[in-house]
Amino acid sequence: MKDVPALLEKAVSGRRLSLEEGILLMEKADLLALGTAANRIRQKLHPDGIVTYVIDRNINYTNVCVCGCHFCAFYRRPGDRDAYVIDKPQLDKKIRETLAAGGTELLIQGGLHPSLNIDFFIDMLRYIKKNYDIHIHSFSPPEIVHLSRLSGLPVADVLAQLKQAGLDSLPGGGAEILVDRVRKLISPNKISWRQWMEVMDAAHRLGMKTTATMMFGHVETPAEQVKHMVRVREQQDATGGFTAFIPWSFQPRNTKLGGQTAGGALYLRVLAMARIMLDNIPNIQASWVTQGAKMAQVALNFGANDFGSTMLEENVVRAAGVSYRVGLKEIRRVIKDAGFTPAQRRTDYTLVEQA
Amino acid sequence: MLKTNDTLQAIANKVEKGERLSREDGIALFRSHDLLEIGKMANMVRERKHGKKTYFIVNRHINHTNICVNRCRLCAFGRDADSPGAYVLSLEEIEQKIAACADQNISEIHIVGGLNPDLKLDYYVEMLRMVRRRLPHAIIQSLTAVEVEYLARMHGMTYREVLSTLRDAGLDSLPGGGAEIFAPRVRQIICPKKIDGETWLAIHEAAHELGMRTNATMLYGHVETIEERVDHLLRLRQLQDRTGGFLTFIPLAFHPKNTALCSMGCTTSTTGHDDLKTLAIARLLLDNFDHIKAFWIMIGPKLAQVSLSFGVDDLDGTVVEEKIAHDAGAETEQYMAREELVYMIKSAGYYPVQRDTLYNVIKEGF
Lengths: 355, 366
Hints:
heterodimer, A: alpha/beta, TIM Barrel, four-stranded parallel beta sheet, three-stranded parallel beta sheet, B: alpha/beta, four-stranded mixed beta sheet, 16 helices, 14% strand, globular
């Protein structure tokens, strides 16, 4: 077995680490050593010192969800007093506000509603594309599989229809930990890791880019954290459609799962390991929504090169008792303060020219 | 770029050999964006002094009054006597708060407040006696140098006389508040009526001469320059060389909300990068201080945990009730259970040690 410094050097020199090597690092390496290696890899991949962000809005079209994940504080059951489905005037208002704020992207996601079928989504996508010039980065794999079940269509057909109606790319939510032992404990009704990956595989093959996320800090082991990364890496070798990897920590408040929230040290550890393991994914996002601006800024030295989105609206994490609000000005300030150059990007990571 | 790396490398060599860093070194460190290199140097010093030990305390803060004649612009806590929200805790009220925590094995009572003209020396003497009677085993760390000077002025006494009187009544130690930034230029802007830096240092020196251990702080992230931060740290190092009376250095991140400085345009909070760098550089410059503390109330528990790898060996404590930072918009909780502190320390790979004010071990092996 190789020792920690040799493994870190191997990763920095561009050679791929195995699952076992990754687990050893996750368990044994000290935080600053991991950070230093991740930072060097980030510098190689992004030598210009630019840290990007996207201006977007989360739109949650419904909070009704039949999945009932134990880690979630957002969902409602059909018929609950505060259950909702968004209507067109609300949608219009949210999109107009997003565009007025310089936004380029909509992140539309919702619960697994038992009776919103594919026509609802096709109609929504067409409506948006007809009326607005904006990138639609929407519907995570659990929603796609849910639509496939409701409509009886294969996943690839659902995606093709949505794409034709205006869907541009997929967010990487619902990945949680891509190990079924963990999924059975925290989200027993949610799609398996293979199903999650099949959606991404199909999307990539249709020419749609996606991101991949990871929700850690609950019941998973360090080995399962690394396994998650390796599974994403293997898919990326096959299809190359992941633009970014976004780890965030489980937020326990108001959830059935409960327990302690992961500390800042584990967050930076996982983030740095992601940069070290995912040699074929160009971007690693810091998550100010779950970690706050201070930690997200520090993450820029632990492998992150992107500040994620400004999120004019965010409801899911807020429902779990965390409400960091960070404005665009503040995002730009903290990026500069850490010695980087802030730049607005589009969903595909091309830069938006500043007027 | 190369030049910066060379400078950092030269500093790292000094740190490795245990050599004292210069003013220029301090300035170069603050100018650098190389957070991880600075962190590694600070961590080297931390591990040399403490290994993986991380200290915390079961303590209780009490802010006995917010009425203050100084009304510093950096502060969102002080009130005029006739303002809404102005308060003074009677000795009975303080006694109730103390009595309520009598069974919690509190190691330290931390009482600080405003400069209230109605509160004379006898109020403090009685307060200290009462706390000593109620909690005979707790260490009383109370009254900043600013309050000590105010009492001396009020009663025409020397600092030493005031400190002796308070010590005889039960005072064990002075907290480090009121240091802000020593530079007169900065104090003129942020706290024009507050005692100057020389007086703050003189009072701590007097306390040290009486055998009292004290803490030192630095309020950063407002109008001060990098040079003024470094000079502040060096003044503390100088006094520590002479007396050895400082226990811990605690950098305090400025919180602008509700302060007069905020309405003067000083609106931004410190960043995580700056917080970690400041803690790490303090560890590097203050070679004669045993401990560097990150106050989780000020920078948040996540960053405080990360700071353990950036030179910090102390996370303060349970606190229970905190008004000063919270009036200035701190979004942290006011209380952290001992179990949470232990978890926070252990889950970052460190070894928690429950201490008293003087760093005597109360409990370890959690």
